[in-house]
Amino acid sequence: MTDSARSSDDLLVVDQVGHTYGTGPTAHRAIDGLSFSVRSGEFVSIVGPSGAGKTTLLRILAGLLAPTEGTVSLSGKVVDAVPEGMAMVFQDYSRSLLPWLTVGKNVQFPLRGDRRGKEERRALVQQSIDLVGLTGHEHKYPWQLSGGMQQRVAIARALAYRPSLLLMDEPFASVDAQTREGLEDLVLRVREQSDVTILFVTHDVDESVYLADRVLVLSKPPSRIVEDIPVPLPSPRDQIRTKELAEFVHLRGQVARLIHGAQPAVAADAAG
User: Fold this and answer.
1) Is 253 a residue whose pLDDT tops 80?
2) Are strands 86-89 and 165-169 parallel, antiparallel or unpaired?
3) Domain assignment of residue 65, given as a range
4) How many domains does the chain have?
5) pLDDT digits over 44-77, tens only?
6) What tens digit of pLDDT does each residue of 132-163 get?
7) Gap between the Cα atoms of 234 and 206, Å rounded
8) Is residue 60 domain-resident?
9) Separation of alpha carbons 93 and 142, rounded Å
10) Is 46 a member of any domain?
11) Helices 177-194 and 147-160, axial angle in degrees (round to 10)
């Protein structure tokens, strides 16, 4: 990605990032030359076939794994450790929450040692709890809540940190379909009300299109970006009306075909 291709609004810049596990004949090339950017306030989904290196990419973005090649920058600073201004919501909410702490204490946990005053921290925690619809549940423990409510706690905890970028790693994969739809709509409301930038990894094609401003489709490993698809669906989005739109049906079909190995449109046209 050249400097001229970057925008002053870019919050996250991924530049020719690659990663290989191991060396020699047993080496596994997970991702290869990934380049993309995410603008401030944008919602970007990442999808790809199983084993496409989505988790490897997220670990690199979060500063938990050093790339073999290339760089990741957040707010203009190269990521070489867990960066300030980034939070992550994991798929397995049951393991990410601390069962011996109440909802309020779980949400407050990342603010321990924060320079803010006690009252300001308390206000941030309550605002985050209110935002995800858990008002009145502050003194319950995770094991007293449903799976969907537990994931709301995990989202509230991430939001309490007031991140500039929120990474979400297949966060709704472990809940039932109805709960999933409610959580999808919750994330859209959170995005609207908190103006947070979101990078959302999922294996669900409908979810990737329904939520995002753009969908990045990854290839089979070693992963490359097959296509960067804009999603010009109207807002606010609705689980029924939006998914009935001809444009939604077209986009989810396009993404599905790419995941299953179809050539991107530009490449197909060139081949013809």
Assistant:
1) yes
2) parallel
3) 1-81+197-265
4) 1
5) 999 998 888 888 999 999 999 999 999 999 999 9
6) 999 999 999 999 999 899 999 999 999 988 89
7) 16
8) yes
9) 10
10) yes
11) 20
Asked if 56 contacts 221 with a C-beta cutoff of 8 angstroms, the reply is no
Of the listed ranges 169-178, 219-228, 241-250, the one predicted with least confidence: 169-178
Angle between helices 118-131 and 147-160 (to 10 degrees): 140
Stretch (H or E) spanning 208 = helix 205-211
CATH number at residue 212: 3.40.50.300
Q: What is the pLDDT of residues 92-134, one digit of tens each?
A: 777 789 999 999 999 998 887 677 778 888 899 999 999 999 9
Q: What angle do CA 202, 203, 208 make, to 5 degrees?
A: 55
User: What DSSP element (H or E) covers 106?
Assistant: helix 103-108
pTM: 0.88
Give me the count of residues in the chain: 272
Whether residue 134 lies inside any domain: the answer is no
Look-up of token digits 């084993």: 51
Evaluate whether residue 160 is within a structural domain.
no
Backbone angles phi, psi at 168, to 5 degrees: -130, 120
Q: How far apart are CA 261 and CA 217, in angstroms?
A: 11
